[in-house]
Amino acid sequence: MVFCSLIRTFVGCMKQGRTETISIRSVSCAFMVLAIAIFKPFGLEVWQWQAYVHLLAIFVLGLFSCFLTEIILRYIVRMPRSYDRGVNYIISRNLRFQCINTPLVSLLICLYRHFAMSELVEGNKLSLSNYLETLVIIAFLSFAIGLYWRFKFRSRYLAAELEETRLLNEQLKKLQDSGQDSQIIEEGTNQDSQITLEGTTNEHVTLEISNLLYIEAVGNYVKVTQLHDGEVKTNMLRATMKQMEDALQAYSMIVRCHRAFMVNLGQVEQISSNSRAMQLVMRHSHDAIPVSRSNVNKLKELLG
């Protein structure tokens, strides 16, 4: 029954064009089995020709675990395999895959040790120490396998990052050239384009919305950075980012991109990104504003 399910999953993946995924998982399982064959844990050295049968069974269990993890990611975690959602999504999905697959395949191998390999090796009996031993071995192998694939696909990731950043910059340029920021200002308010930002005390800052660069949270204060008379100027207000969001919610070109930052997309000169983070380089000040992972998709949707 399990073998039939494995075959059906394999055929389904083939029909969906997942040949590369199957190839990657097969090579990974083969690497795992090869390492186990070399170091002979689980008392494999006491078995003679039967050791090859056990290694083949572990290979099949590894493949089954990979396909089961793919199903969990797709239908339970809601993270289908996709190369169109950016590098951060791919890396995040791969990390989740390892976090789910490593304890799962360890459990399957641990059960196999108990039911098929405990006849000659008493230490293969099901126990917590048995499982922890298996988990440590598989975790180390998973880490090594992950490093291999990350190195192998490094050029692909870099190309994807460059292409994604290029498209985001094109979308940003179109948004800025279309004059949507000025339209939003006119539609969002019934007055002129000036706004007064107030703190919890008596201080306030009056500025042109189009001249606002970004707002940064600094302790109990916020730092308002704007372009004033052709120069970059900063003002400190005793306020929270939530107060600033509420005051500027009518202007959709001003977005929260990080826990500590709000930016005016009309004043973003360039978007830069790598596998670690995305940043917005501001005009005039050339400050690099970080975009948190939780806000990356929101920013992409706005630019799209």
Descriptive notes:
The protein has 304 residues and is α+β, with helices and mostly antiparallel strands. It has helices at residues 2-15, 19-39, 50-75, 87-116, 128-152, 154-177, 180-188, 241-247, 293-303; strands at 194-198, 204-208, 212-218, 221-228, 231-237, 254-258, 261-264, 268-273, 278-282, 288-291. The protein has a 5-stranded antiparallel sheet with strand order 5-4-3-7-6. It has a 3-stranded antiparallel sheet with strand order 8-9-10. A two-stranded antiparallel ribbon has the order 1-2.
What's the topology here?
Layout: H1 2-15, H2 19-39, H3 50-75, H4 87-116, H5 128-152, H6 154-177, H7 180-188, E1 194-198, E2 204-208, E3 212-218, E4 221-228, E5 231-237, H8 241-247, E6 254-258, E7 261-264, E8 268-273, E9 278-282, E10 288-291, H9 293-303
Antiparallel strand pairs: 1-2, 3-4, 3-7, 4-5, 6-7, 8-9, 9-10
Quick tags:
9 helices, three-stranded antiparallel β-sheet, 55% helix, five-stranded antiparallel β-sheet, single chain, alpha+beta, 18% strand, elongated, 304 residues
Global Rg: 27 Å
Could you list the spans in which at least 5 consecutive residues all have pLDDT below 50?
1-7, 9-17, 181-191
Backbone shape: elongated
Proportion in helices: 40-55%
Q: What order do the SSEs take from the amino end to the carboxyl end, as H and E?
A: HHHHHHHEEEEEHEEEEEH
Strand content: 15-25%
How many β-strand stretches? Answer: 10
Provide the structure class. Answer: alpha+beta
Taking the sheet with the most strands, its summary is: 5 strands, antiparallel
First and last CA, distance: 46 Å
Our count of helices gives 9
Average pLDDT, rounded to a whole number, is 83
